[in-house]
Structures are given as structure tokens and as C-alpha cells.
Amino acid sequence: xxxxxxLALLVLLFLAFLFFTISSYAKxxxxxxxxxxxxxxxxxxxxxxxxxxxxxxxxxEILKYMETLSYDGLQKSDxxxxxxxxxxxxxxxxxxxxxxxxxxxxxxxxxGNFYFPTKEYGNISLPAGYYDxxxxxxxxxEGNNWWCSLFPPLCFVDISSGVIDESSKETxxxxxxxxxxxxxxxxxxxxxxxxxxxxxxSK
Length: 203
Prior knowledge:
By secondary structure, the protein is an alpha+beta fold. The protein has one domain (about 35-200). It is about 55% helix and about 20% strand. The chain is elongated, with a radius of gyration of 21 Å.
């Protein structure tokens, strides 16, 4: 009887150790991935076809201006500071675009650390978790959002083909460990399991 109790205790200790190890790994990877991204999110007023089209027009004008600022070669903190310095310009561009389309929605911009569900961008996937981001809220901001990454700078990549090109992948790889890079770019079964673990413990 004593042997069975000892065996049960050993099993429980092993399971507790395994849970702690997996949890620590997943939380570390989730934190490191989120720490290496600065995201741009543009939220539509609603999910109506008109509001979603308006969101994309705002996106186009914002990105057109952002291209003149050149986010390439910056560190994350520099990208955030550059964004902060241009917040009023972004807001003015969004408001003017909205007005030119015949709407009078207010625009609210905020930079902070926000929780986001799993998101796909081209052929990369970011696990759910907390990320630093610039949010541009149009009107009630109750519609689906469009997102990209200001750091690493992926906002200016053409994703119409659904594929992030190799140079952009290299930029990602420079800012992540090999394991983290595989988790967001690879879709084999082992990596998918890691991705799910990261998502689970990020919550």
C-alpha cells in the first residue's frame, strides 16, 4: 500500500513538474513574441459593407503617409516614438479621409498594450496575447479590424498573394529566436502543438 502511495505521489510530482515546465516555456515564448512586435490595428465603425470599405480607405491613406516616415531599420522603441510623434498627423489623415467619403465618424487613436486573439497576416500567424499596438478606432469601433506590424515593419508588404516574402521573413527572424520564428511561420504538426500551448498559457 505504501509503495502505491509513493508511486502515486511520484506521478503527481512528475505531472506537476511537466505542467510547470510547459507553462514556463509557453509563457516565455508568448512574452518574447509579443515583446518583439508593435502592431497597427484599424477598427471599423461596424461590420456593414460601407464601414468596412471606409476602414480600408483609411488604412490606405495612413499607410501611404507611414511609407514617407520609413520604419525600416528602426528598433521597436524608435518605431513607437516615431508613431507617437505623428499621432496628430495620423488622426488628421483619418478624419479627412472619412469626411471625403461623406461620413462624420469621430476618430480615436491610442497606443497601449492590448489583448488580441490569434491573427494571421499573409503566411504568418501571431498567437493570442498582449501586444503593444497603435489602435485607430473609427466611430464606435465595433467592426472587424485590419492589422499589420509596424515593428518588424511588415505593414508595407503586399499580402494580396497571402505570402510574406523572404526578405520580410528575414526581418522577423532577426528579432525572434529560431523556435519562436518557427511557431509563427511553420504549420507542421509539432509546431502547431507548440502554437496551441503558447496560446493556452498566454491567457
